[in-house]
Please model this.
Amino acid sequence: MAGPRAGTLSYLLFFGLLVLATRVPMAPGQLVTFDDVNLAYSIGHFDVRVSQPQPPGYPLFVMEMRLLYWLHFRRAEHILLALGIAGSIAALLLMCLFGNRMLGGQAGFFAACLMLFHPVFWQTGVASALRMQLAVVSLAVAAACWRAWRGEVRWVLWSAIVLAVGAGIRPETGPLLFPLWAAGAMQAPVTWKARAQALAAMAGVVLLWLLPAMVASGGPITYIKTSLQYVSDQASVSSELFGATQAKAHTTWWRLIVWTGFGILGWAMPAVLAWRRKARWGIDREWMIFLALWFVPSFLFAISVHVEDPGQVLAMVPVVSLFGGYLTSRALDNLDLLISRWHALTLSLATLTVAWIVWFHYGWFLVLWIPPAALAAALLLKLAQVKNTGNPTRLAMFLFLMAPPMILNLTAFNFHGWYYQGESTGGWRASLDQALSDMNTGLELTSREAVEKTLAADDHTLKQLQRLAAERPGQTVVVFEQGMTTWRKAAYYVPNVPVVVLEHKLIRRSPPTMAVWKGGHQEKFAQGGAPLRVELPAGARIVWLLNPRTEFYRVVQQAFSLSAADPVYFTDLPQQSGSRIVGEYELAW
Model:
């Protein structure tokens, strides 16, 4: 037992240090997203009806947050950062142990190396502790189901419990990973009674977290209704089946391809060097079926229902990384046996070529030319092969194989300026331009720049909001409509100022709504036909959280005199009563 334990501790130390070194320097000083604010409020009060947190609730993740709060992590920012780091390390450790067990050798370790700097995994580890749990739960359930699949009888029950607990952390993983559990239970040599008992245990564990979540949110009917409406709203953003435009659905498709498949670009060398003439890639049919059952339900859900944020694909990224880890392991095994007679020349030329690409170019040039350069190097290493006598070493070749994916991942994450604007107005060229634009925005959303820009813009907005409110204490109201900074963050960081939120309850066509929030408490809500009346105090200062590129900004500009306090605007209302029609709303004081 000393060997496996020593290996686990080595993996933990290795990946723990790398995660800390690469995530802590980027630690945000504020809550990054709307969802983060919802989670922060849920530490004190759980209720999905008021998005504390957003439906369906993530009750066991909230328990993790409350545990850290009990351990004197007093700021929600610190709690989420700690959980993001812990989740990143846990996912990498699970990848190592599970991948090595399933695919043999060090395939899991190589897969974890590929995933460590994957742009989606890296960015999510900094920006969304909740979404990082998708990777943790996905790997934990897959590891448990594989043991049942391979005939370890007791793991039929344990995998059911792991899935039930994982669903309490990320509820969508329950139905999406259930086919994998069912297949594993069917493969295991157990009776139908044992399978039924495992299923009952799964249901029992689910009820342990689901019933309290329902009770805290107004009862089962209200909870289910709120959750279904939330899913419908979110799906209508990205899915054509739920009302999104065809253009938006195409954007969703290309972003999904970038977020899940970007790492594949770095596999050119492992893919070529893993090939053997007779055995080919040596892919085992059994574990390919297992990987498909693991990957396909989440992919179909993403493309047909909802995927809007890079972190939402983290249930799938481990599957892709695991396959890359297998190819890397097999390639190294092949190189241990045979190596090109010209390997020194090939490695030198490849290194100089990649150095030239990196030194003189960046961004898309690297993405386009690193894979062909790696492919050419791999093909040369397959020529004139002779027995490997120990030079180059396995470690040297591992570093050489890892260089292309590392360069590509670091480029994708650190490059500032992912942008493409096509000029074609019709035909296939316009479609190609739009696809390239969508892929660029997909890369931008997984980059360090996206986090930094969000934090910088929100920090500036919040400071201006605090300054403007301090000038008119007790007489300031924030009005939000598609603002660049979310209203939830404004309400969280300036809790004494009322925030009037103007939006449609459903993202699809529906009557306008108006809600007034103060901190985490909703003080008023109204929905009705246009113009919906919004009452404001006479003589108050309105601080507008708007997007200057929207139609609503233009109609506000026509109805009110706006004073700029970049990046927000404000209007001081007169003491006399009055009203203005602004789009679908009547603002009266």
